[in-house]
Amino acid sequence: MAGSGNAHLRDEAVLRVVDLVVEFPAKKKQVVHAVSGVSFDLDRGETLGIVGESGCGKTTTGRAVMHLEHASSGQIELNGVDLASTSGEQLRQARRAMQMIFQDPVSSLNPSRRVKDIVREGLEIWGTKTGAFREGWVEDIMESVGLGDPSVGERRPHEFSGGQCQRICIARALVMDPDVLILDEPVSALDVSVQAQILNLLESLKTKFGLTMLFISHDLAVVKNISDRVMVMYLGKVCEVAETDLLYDNPTHPYTRALLASIPGHTLDLPPASELISGELPSPLDPPSGCRFRTRCPRATERCAAEEPVLEEIEPGHWIACHHP
Questions:
Q1: What are the pLDDT digits (tens) for 243-286?
Q2: CATH class (in words) of the domain with range 1-79+226-285+293-324
Q3: What average pLDDT is seen over the chain?
Q4: Could you give the 3-state DSSP secondary structure of residue 207?
Q5: Containing H/E element for 78?
Q6: Three-state secondary structure call for residue 309
Q7: Where are the domains of the chain?
Q8: Which residue ranges does the record assign to the ABC transporter domain (predicted)?
Q9: What secondary structure does DSSP assign to 98-152, as a single string?
């Protein structure tokens, strides 16, 4: 499966993903094309937002980077080590530098364990930061996420709200001092007011700990507030990659324009979303030829069916895969 182009990738990135393909077997010898040749990178201290509607492959991409899903092909390089070709103890050691925060904070916590045991479990497994230094580190992390009350550590997850449980999940990830933090829809299960609190917390933690984050979300308004760059995905492919301000001020791909037009109260000069996109998302069992968005795009031509577009730079830091931007 060909990728959408790798010219946008940079050197010296802490995380570099090249032509990632993830496919799942289905009935009648069919294949689900979840991720098809996706490439991106992350510089140290950067936040990359991945956006797209449900079924675009953004969550599968994040899980494949973490090796929670098997990559059919492609490269996943963390600090120069290709995880896709690594196995056994070497892979286990390398994965320690990545941590993931999941969409549902309540179900991702062990209900029978105390909070302080949940947070320090990774340190115990790896035997790092032992003794009093470990306890002090755990206390510092708990305080950093807003859970500094000593009584919090003695309680169990069911005694907390969803927002507080997500703070516990963030603490559990941060305590391992990761090089890359992958966040899969970390605020979508929370109330709007709590979402803002968690986003503000992540921003402050990024400054304090120099975090490098891969932030996955379907909410473009949320992604705008947290990301340095944004990557738009559609049906397992990359449509557009740009610095956040560039993408939101000048959306160029028809799919990106449709997504931004659907945001309530947007200030861009865009037609209604219904004029920019039509129909339903095609099945990943049988994705369209050429440009996968062509079946819903008002600008589609015969070229779009015959030739897959690759990412091309239209202005510094702004890349798009479209024959008719």
A1: 999 999 999 999 999 998 888 777 677 887 777 888 888 999 99
A2: alpha beta
A3: 91
A4: helix
A5: strand 73-78
A6: coil
A7: 1-79+226-285+293-324
A8: 15-260
A9: EEEE-S-TTTTS-TTS-HHHHHHHHHHHHT-S-HHHHHHHHHHHHHHTT---GGG
